[in-house]
Each structure stands twice: as C-alpha cells, then as structure tokens.
Amino acid sequence: MPSAVTIAIANQKGGVAKTTTAINLATSLAIEGFQVLLVDCDPQSNATGGLGITRDQVERSTYDILLGDAEVSQVVVNTRVKNLRLIPANRSLAGANVELVPLERREFRLREALAPILESFDFILFDCPPALDLLTLNALCATRYIIIPMQAEYFALEGVTDLLYTIERIQSAFNPALLVQGVLLTMYDDRTLLAQQVTENLRGYFGDGLYKTVIPRNIRLAEAPSHGLPVLFYDPRSRGAEAYRALARELLERLRIPLPAGEPE
Asked: How much is the average pLDDT of 143-171?
C-alpha cells in the first residue's frame, strides 16, 4: 500500500470499548504482518497503559506533536507487539483542547504532523476520547475511516445520531473524504433477548454498515489492560481474542486488502 489506511475508533459515549477495540484491532493487524501505528488521542492514556507503557515512561506524547513541540519521529515508540508502534498520551494532552483554540489550522494539526510518516505504515489507528472535542476533531480530520463501537442497548442510537451529525459537518467543512467504515457491537451478550432485539434494530438502521463480527462480554478482555497486554497476548484463545482476530479479517475483506506476503507472526 502506498499510504497508510487511517481509521479512527470514535464514539463520544464512554464505556463502549473504544480503547479495547483500538488496542486489539491494532494488535490483530500487526499479528497478520501489517506495519501498524496506534495514536493515543485520549488524555486518560488508557491505550498507552494497555500496551504496557506507564505515564511516567512517556517523555513526549500526542500533545507535543499537536502543539508543534516535537516531530512525529521523536514521539513514536515501540511496543511489546511486533509490527505495532505507538504515539503515546499523557496528562499533558488534557490541556490541548484549550491551547489549540488560538492556533492556525487547529483542526489539522494531527493530520499535518503525521504526513511525513504515512508511507511508513500500512495502518494508522486513532483512539479517540469520549467527547466531540478538538482532540476528536483532529483525529477525524486526519483519518479516512471511522469505526464506531457501541453497545446493544436501546439508548445507543441516541449518541450515535449525534456522532453521525458531527461527522456530516466535518465532511462538509474539513474532510470530505471521511467515511464511516462500520459500526461494531461490543460487550455483547447473545443470551439476552434485549441484545438480540437491539441488534435487529441496528441492522435495520445501519444495514451492511453493522459489522457481522461482535465483541462479546469477556473477562479476559477486562483483565488484559491491567497486565499491560492486548488480549491476544494475555489469553490468545479467549473469546475476546478470537473476536478481534475475526474483526481484523472482516475489516481487511471490506477494504479488499490482501494479507502481506509470508506467514503471519
């Protein structure tokens, strides 16, 4: 691929497994042999910690490239996962929403910072904060695709409707190439009638935009971040790990991207 496929994991509603999805989808793609960069855009820095990097270890972060205090090559760090690199976050990022306001082209700071390395990766994923703020706006201006994680609950559509409205405004004003790649059901319990009914409603609303793969409620998914590991390393045979491997394969199929030559590691 001549330039990275860019994907933001976004939903302004918290607790829908955005970070879990960002970490484990990025890991799944890396395991398949792709060169992957994960950009932590959330001041909570959970994607950073979930890959085994503590806040104290972060010398430069997404904050520094947004404010122009560092080149992106100075910020990217290795992770424990082969083929997966990270632009980490730390507490400093919380101030970026205020500090970006007076800057020129504040919506495009992340896109412009990443431009020099687009050809160095096959995929760049953005873990967005649970808010429609300047950090999320920067990610959505830097990306081609969005994956929206959401729970199978009756109020889920309300938040997604707000996000879809925001996406339309961003398409009109800043990034006409922006596309919703898919909607992903997370923390799914197929034993409940409610989940089944909501899934049918969502499929009626989104059609083929709803991923066939669903991410189940799984204790291993919940435990893995406390060990600083993706679930695919913490328990590769768990239902959660298998689901994210399936999601990566479905994403590649949707994008019509073949696996890299050679056997995946």
From this structure: 85
Calpha distance 27→242 (Å, rounded): 12
Residue 12 CB contacts under 8 Å (≥ 6 apart), including other chains: 130, 131, 132, 136, 159, 162, 163, 166
The tokens describing 59, both together, are: 């010398």
**Phi/psi at 229 (nearest 5 deg)?**
-135, 145
66-93 residue pLDDT tens: 999 999 999 999 999 999 999 999 989 9
SS3 137: helix
The model's pTM: 0.94
Return d(Cα 184, Cα 78) in angstroms, integer: 28
- In angstroms, how far apart are the furthest CA atoms of the chain? 52
- Tell whether domain 5-255 is in CATH 3.40.50.300: yes
